[in-house]
Design brief:
alpha/beta; eight-stranded mixed beta sheet; two-stranded antiparallel sheet; 6 helices; 10 strands; 37% helix; globular
Amino acid sequence: MNSVKTTDEETVGAQQIAVVTGAGSGIGRAVAVELLTAGWAVALAGRRPETLAETAALAPAGGAVLSVRTDVSRPEDVAALFAAVRDRFGRVDLLFNNAGTFGPGGVPVEDLPYEAWRHVVDTNLNGAFLCAQAAYRQMREQDPRGGRIINNGSISAHTPRPHSVAYTATKHALTGLTKSLSLDGRPYGIAVGQIDIGNAATDMTAGMQTGALQANGETAPEPVMDVADVARTVRHMAELPLEANVQFATVMATAMPYVGRG
């Protein structure tokens, strides 16, 4: 675990504090920059320090940023992340539980190596649990008490794509995690919701615009949406008062083959 401070201590103060995992690229980067632009202090967590530095460089002048190299599947990394955030900012108001991996694409279930299955489960599910648990503990004890956790689900939390058993299983499980955390967080002012995202334009979805395998066996291009639209949705969820909660939100390219998929 490595941390890099990139901001003036005086900029923190009364700001709301967010932790964004998977902040080095894609949706995580877009959400981190959206929150920073809105005046939040943001801790960027991810496995690659160089991409975290690229995200931090997009912060507006004076933005309060902390970059922490973190593998969310490692309990010791997650503990160190939240200790660094507590030491730097004093509290956590928001966790955007975003880190995830699709795993090997296009592999039939009978050919999926156990190691690949385990890697997806460790990152998408175990990592989300570890980060939520650490945030929950901090939010329960801080003063004022409470905070918000937003889990990054997926369209695959509802409907699978072909040959996506590990990813789909973890995203279905994430929905159960969201519901359970939401219930258990009520006495402590911890609001927990989930955003299910479809076909945002990132490196992960670049191939969909040229052709993605469909349920009928055909390959067809799919529309995508601007990742900034996802970031604005997360910010809306994040900035609600703790008395209000978006339990589940679905944001997707309007014409993507989700409704009626298959």
